[in-house]
Structure formats: C-alpha cells, structure tokens
From TrEMBL:
PANTHER family: MITOCHONDRIAL RIBOSOME-ASSOCIATED GTPASE 1. GO terms for cellular component: mitochondrion. Keywords: GTP-binding, Hydrolase, Mitochondrion, Nucleotide-binding, Transit peptide. It is found in: Mitochondrion. It comes from Digitaria exilis. InterPro entries: G_CP_dom (IPR030378), GTP-bd (IPR006073), GTP-bd_ortho_bundle_sf (IPR023179), P-loop_NTPase (IPR027417). SUPFAM superfamilies: P-loop containing nucleoside triphosphate hydrolases (SSF52540). Residues 34-204 form the CP-type G domain. This is CP-type G domain-containing protein. PROSITE patterns: G_CP. GO terms for biological process: mitochondrial translation. GO terms for molecular function: GTP binding; GTPase activity.
Length: 369
C-alpha cells in the first residue's frame, strides 16, 4: 500500500499536472450553499455524509469536518461497485477503529440503501422516542451520489411508512453541481422524519494537487475546470506507476484460455474469437470487447516501452504513446496538425468512471502511507 501512496503522489507532481495549475472549483452557488448547510446542520438530528468509495478521504469536505464530527454521523461510502472490495473492507475496519459509523453502499441498490436506513434508525433510536419530528441531512462533495441516494430512500420509505404526502424526486445527473438548492423530503410519519438533500460543495481551496486530481478523476470537479486530457494523463500515470497493465496481462491471458476451453468443450471451432471480431471493422465493437482492447493496448505499450518509467519525462513519453494508440482503438480520425488527445481522453475517462476498467481505490489507508 505504501507503493500506491507514492504512486499517487508522484503522478500528482508530474509536469503536465503542475503546469496546469492548482485544481480548484468553487463557483458562487457553492459559497451560498456552504453557509446554508452550516445553518441547517445545527438543526439536524443525524447527518449522512456521502463520500466516493474510490476516494474515502479525498472526497471529504474538510471545511465541514469539525462541525460534522460533533453530530450523529454516518459515513456512506457510495459507488462501492466501482471500488476494490478487498481494500474497501480494510477501509471499513479503519473507520470502525476510529469509532466512526461507516457503511459502503450502492445508492442505486435497494438492499444496500435499506442497510443504511437500518443503521440510521439505530442511531436515532433514542431520539425517536423523545421527538415528534426528526431531521436527517445528506451532505457531500459534488457527484458522489447524494441525489440518487435520496431517490432510493424515497422508494423504500414509500413501501415501509404510511406517507401520504406526494413524494418529490431529487434531480440526478452525471455532472457535478446538479443540485443547487436545499430541498426537504418527508420520508416517514410517527415520528415525522425529513431528509434534506443538499448541493455538493467543495472547499474554497483544495489543499493539494493530488487531492484535486483525484476529485477531478472521479467526477467531483467539472472536466472543463481541469481539462480532460490532463485528467486522462493523470489516470494513465497512476496505472503505469502501479503497473496495472501487468495485472491486465494476466487477466487477458486467462480470458483467452477460458474462451479456448469453451470452444473445445462445445465443439465450436469457429475462428471468430473476441479478438478477431474486434479486428473486423465490419462488426460492431461491444463495450466488453472495447474494454479488453483498451486493456490490451495499454498492456502492450507498457511492455514494449524501452524507456525508464521511473524517469518523469520518459513516463510522459509512454503516456503520449498510449493515448496515440488508444486513438486507433476508439476509432477517432487523425486530424493533421492536431496533437491533442481530447476525444481519446474523454472516452478513456468514461470507461474508468463507469467501472469498466475495473474496481479501484485511489486513496490509501492513513496508517499505511
């Protein structure tokens, strides 16, 4: 794990990142929202702080931590389906050792959100017997899935509680900053329990380059603020420094072996293997095939590279070679005198953010840094 910490720090300090300036995004509505959240936190009986499971520390709003630590709080590490499950368990153990209630969730899964609600009810057990109205606040940085969580809570609450008020839905979108006001939603009666969905807010100044790039890579900061090519280069630097392509090489070899075993067992001697199908331009490239080709391309360029990836300028050379090779995989036409990798970067980031390239956790446990 210490190696991963050094990898992320080294990737964050590379020239193409430093040259792009600090990563900060704090539009006017965030400043107003931050003030409103602080005011309403005084009234909250429970706070659910949603973080991205891929960055359990980097997705914390440090400006709110002193206030949140004084409240009943549950850390909900959302998007657990995109995070490495083995490392995720170690993070849960870490927060438990810090006496912090924490649960990993998938905000789109009813069973997962039901577990979160069960923990919330347990935390509010004493207050429920004393108060007629209770308030739960959901907070977090942009694009960690707060609104998706709110909508899942609505669906579950509608089947569990006799709520007659018309349910409202929170706006959900793939871009950070969709929710720009604070809205209240009644989810239960006797006692009345309200959930407040809040806008995603960042700190006015992100403390370091590494944290800012992780937030950008996971979608908490708008791509236009940092630049898609810069974010994609950061991703590739992480993958190369961590030697992830070597892991993919073993997976790809195993997939080919399984495919051949299946063909032999079924008596299918067709030569239309996934790799051959991908190379036939007349056939559609399915997402799974595309992902395998991306992994194969990054693997082959990594293995064929004769430079020293411990040298920053040579690592950057490898990254440029990989982006050029991926342009062909994504079938992006080459434009004369255009040396940018914008469209290629966008497609690569889409695959990463959707979990198609595999589960990752970019932060490292504090005691293992």
């Amino acid at each position: 794990m210490r190696g991963l910490t050094r990898a992320a720090k080294r990737a964050g300090e590379m020239a193409f990142n430093a040259g792009g300036g600090a990563v900060n995004w704090f539009p006017g509505h965030m400043a107003a929202a931050s003030r409103a959240i602080r005011d309403r936190l005084k009234l909250a009986d429970l706070v659910i702080e949603v973080r991205d499971a891929r960055i359990p520390l980097s997705s914390a709003n440090e400006d709110l931590q002193s206030v949140l630590s004084a409240k009943r709080r549950i850390l909900a590490l959302n998007k657990k389906d995109l995070a490495n499950p083995n490392i995720m368990n170690r993070w849960l153990d870490h927060f438990e050792s810090c006496k912090q209630d924490c649960i990993s969730i998938n905000a789109h899964s009813s069973s997962s959100v039901s577990q979160l609600l069960g923990l919330a009810e347990l935390k509010l057990k004493e207050a429920i017997s004393k108060e007629a109205t209770l308030l739960i606040m959901v907070v977090g940085v942009p694009n960690v899935g707060k609104s998706a969580l709110i909508n899942s809570i609505h669906r579950i609450a509608a089947s569990r509680f006799p709520v007659h008020d018309k349910m409202k839905r929170a706006t959900v979108g793939p871009l950070p900053g969709v929710t720009q006001d604070i809205a209240g939603y009644k989810i239960a009666s006797q006692p009345s329990i309200y959930v407040l969905d809040t806008p995603g807010v960042l700190v006015p100044s992100i403390p370091d380059m590494e944290t800012g790039l992780k937030l950008a890579l996971t979608g908490a900061v708008k791509d236009s603020v940092v630049g898609e090519e810069r974010i994609a280069k950061y991703l590739l630097s992480l993958l190369n420094i961590r030697k992830t392509p070597l892991h993919w090489e073993r997976l790809l070899l195993r997939r080919e072996e399984l495919y051949e075993e299946t063909c032999r067992s079924t008596g299918n001697n067709s030569r239309d293997s996934p790799r051959r199908r991908r190379m036939n331009n007349s056939d559609a490239i399915y997402v799974q095939d595309l992902v395998m080709e991306v992994q194969r391309t990054l693997c082959s360029t990594f293995l064929d590279f004769t430079g020293d990836t411990d040298e920053e300028n040579q690592l950057e050379t490898l990254i440029d070679m990989q982006l050029t090779a991926l342009r062909k995989v994504f079938r992006i036409p080459h434009r004369p005198f255009d040396e940018t990798h914008g469209p290629t970067s966008k497609k690569l980031l889409t695959l990463f953010r959707s979990g198609k390239l595999g589960p990752f956790i970019l932060d490292d446990l504090p005691d293992e840094q």
